[in-house]
Amino acid sequence: MQIKLSLLVAALVLLSLPALAQQGNSEVSVNFTGNFQTQTSGFGLTDSASSAGGFLVNYRYHFNHWSAVEVNYGHTRFSQFYSSGNVTQANVNEATFAYQFTFGISEQARFHPFLEAGTGALFFSAPIPAGSSVSGFSQNRPTFLHGAGVTYKLVHNLSV
């Protein structure tokens, strides 16, 4: 896990170097996430996962008014309650990289729509007993990122 985190930090540092010479081309944000899970049953066992909060750190670099690239890292920890009485915890980490098409909207506009597509990886930890420091098995899965959205500028350096 430390190697993965080190690679992510190195990528963020390398991507931020062009931003040091050019003001206004880069954005950094920290987001809080909500993960709402449903109950599932199978093989005579019911798994009720807790709803959990997490965070997502985002770095975006704009090449021009039409395009940008974005790097994301997110983390969530949740608990799973089994009908057998066992309680476990699991971690989910994500690292993604995406290209954004930004429609050429001027910086002075309040609304900035975008489309994005990219790739990355999800890192799942196998459930471990709640409160335990023993590491469980992990699974790493490739992922595809796609989305659309609108950034709304509130004031000069603050957007929603």
Task: Please count the beta strands (DSSP E, at least 2 residues each).
Answer: 10
CATH structural architecture: Beta Barrel
Structural class designation: mainly beta
**Name of the top-level CATH class:** Mainly Beta
Tally of contiguous helical segments? 1
| Cα radius of gyration in angstroms | 19 Å
The level of helicity is: 10-25%
State the distance separating the first and last CA atoms.
31 Å
Overall average pLDDT: 82
Shape type = elongated
Main sheet characteristics: 10 strands, antiparallel
Q: Which strand-content bin applies to the residues?
A: over 45%
Q: What name is given to the CATH topology? A: Porin
Contiguous runs where pLDDT drops below 50 for at least 5 residues: 12-22
Query: Helix-strand pattern, N to C?
Result: HEEEEEEEEEE
In total, the number of domains comes to 1
Concise structural overview:
With 160 residues, the chain is mainly beta. It has 1 helix and 10 strands, in the order αββββββββββ. The chain is elongated, with a radius of gyration of 19 Å.
